[in-house]
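Consider today's protein:

***
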Amino acid sequence: MFIGRKSKFSGKANIKACEDYEKENGSFASIAEEIGTTKGTIRIWYLKYKEYGPDVFETSNRNRSYAKEFKLSVVEEYISGKGSTTDLAVKYNIAVGMLSDWVNKWYNGIEM
Protein backbone atom coordinates (compact mmCIF):
# COMPACT_ATOMS: atom_id res chain seq x y z
CA MET A 1 0.00 0.00 0.00
CA PHE A 2 1.37 3.40 -0.98
CA ILE A 3 0.95 6.27 1.43
CA GLY A 4 1.56 9.70 -0.07
CA ARG A 5 3.69 12.36 1.52
CA LYS A 6 1.91 14.60 4.00
CA SER A 7 3.21 18.00 4.91
CA LYS A 8 2.84 19.29 8.45
CA PHE A 9 1.14 22.35 6.95
CA SER A 10 -1.51 22.49 4.25
CA GLY A 11 -1.01 24.53 1.11
CA LYS A 12 -3.69 26.90 2.42
CA ALA A 13 -1.70 27.44 5.62
CA ASN A 14 1.46 28.17 3.61
CA ILE A 15 -0.39 30.66 1.42
CA LYS A 16 -2.04 32.35 4.42
CA ALA A 17 1.35 32.74 6.11
CA CYS A 18 2.79 34.33 2.96
CA GLU A 19 -0.21 36.61 2.51
CA ASP A 20 -0.07 37.65 6.17
CA TYR A 21 3.58 38.58 5.76
CA GLU A 22 2.90 40.40 2.49
CA LYS A 23 0.04 42.38 4.08
CA GLU A 24 2.34 43.25 7.00
CA ASN A 25 0.14 41.29 9.42
CA GLY A 26 3.26 39.96 11.08
CA SER A 27 6.96 39.30 10.79
CA PHE A 28 8.49 35.98 9.78
CA ALA A 29 9.13 35.35 13.48
CA SER A 30 5.63 36.23 14.71
CA ILE A 31 3.90 34.22 11.96
CA ALA A 32 6.19 31.27 12.66
CA GLU A 33 5.44 31.38 16.37
CA GLU A 34 1.71 31.58 15.69
CA ILE A 35 1.65 28.44 13.54
CA GLY A 36 4.45 26.48 15.20
CA THR A 37 7.41 26.57 12.86
CA THR A 38 10.61 28.57 12.42
CA LYS A 39 11.05 32.02 10.94
CA GLY A 40 13.48 30.49 8.43
CA THR A 41 10.74 28.19 7.17
CA ILE A 42 8.34 31.11 6.74
CA ARG A 43 11.05 33.07 4.92
CA ILE A 44 11.65 30.21 2.46
CA TRP A 45 7.91 29.77 1.92
CA TYR A 46 7.60 33.47 1.18
CA LEU A 47 10.54 33.54 -1.24
CA LYS A 48 9.12 30.56 -3.15
CA TYR A 49 5.64 32.13 -3.08
CA LYS A 50 7.04 35.36 -4.58
CA GLU A 51 8.96 33.45 -7.25
CA TYR A 52 6.34 30.85 -8.28
CA GLY A 53 2.99 31.97 -6.87
CA PRO A 54 0.58 29.99 -4.70
CA ASP A 55 0.79 26.89 -6.91
CA VAL A 56 4.23 26.23 -5.43
CA PHE A 57 2.45 24.75 -2.40
CA GLU A 58 0.50 22.12 -4.31
CA THR A 59 1.51 18.69 -3.09
CA SER A 60 2.27 15.59 -5.06
CA ASN A 61 1.59 11.97 -4.20
CA ARG A 62 5.17 11.06 -4.95
CA ASN A 63 8.65 12.43 -4.48
CA ARG A 64 10.30 14.18 -7.37
CA SER A 65 13.49 12.63 -8.69
CA TYR A 66 16.38 14.61 -10.09
CA ALA A 67 19.01 13.65 -12.64
CA LYS A 68 22.57 13.35 -11.38
CA GLU A 69 23.61 16.09 -13.84
CA PHE A 70 21.05 18.49 -12.38
CA LYS A 71 22.21 17.76 -8.82
CA LEU A 72 25.83 18.35 -9.80
CA SER A 73 25.05 21.60 -11.60
CA VAL A 74 23.21 22.99 -8.56
CA VAL A 75 26.01 21.88 -6.20
CA GLU A 76 28.58 23.50 -8.51
CA GLU A 77 26.61 26.76 -8.41
CA TYR A 78 26.68 26.62 -4.62
CA ILE A 79 30.38 25.78 -4.40
CA SER A 80 31.31 28.53 -6.85
CA GLY A 81 29.50 31.09 -4.68
CA LYS A 82 26.63 31.79 -7.06
CA GLY A 83 24.10 31.52 -4.25
CA SER A 84 23.39 30.25 -0.77
CA THR A 85 21.53 27.01 -0.22
CA THR A 86 18.40 29.08 0.36
CA ASP A 87 18.91 31.15 -2.81
CA LEU A 88 19.42 28.06 -4.94
CA ALA A 89 16.59 26.12 -3.30
CA VAL A 90 14.23 28.95 -4.18
CA LYS A 91 15.68 29.33 -7.68
CA TYR A 92 15.17 25.64 -8.48
CA ASN A 93 12.14 25.05 -6.22
CA ILE A 94 13.82 22.31 -4.20
CA ALA A 95 14.08 21.80 -0.46
CA VAL A 96 17.00 23.46 1.33
CA GLY A 97 17.66 20.24 3.24
CA MET A 98 17.84 18.22 0.04
CA LEU A 99 20.35 20.64 -1.46
CA SER A 100 22.39 20.50 1.75
CA ASP A 101 22.41 16.69 1.48
CA TRP A 102 23.66 16.93 -2.12
CA VAL A 103 26.43 19.32 -1.07
CA ASN A 104 27.47 17.06 1.82
CA LYS A 105 27.54 14.03 -0.46
CA TRP A 106 29.66 15.94 -2.99
CA TYR A 107 32.14 17.07 -0.30
CA ASN A 108 32.39 13.51 1.04
CA GLY A 109 32.75 11.91 -2.39
CA ILE A 110 29.48 10.01 -2.08
CA GLU A 111 27.49 9.23 -5.23
CA MET A 112 24.40 11.39 -5.67
In short: The chain has two domains: 11-57, 68-107.
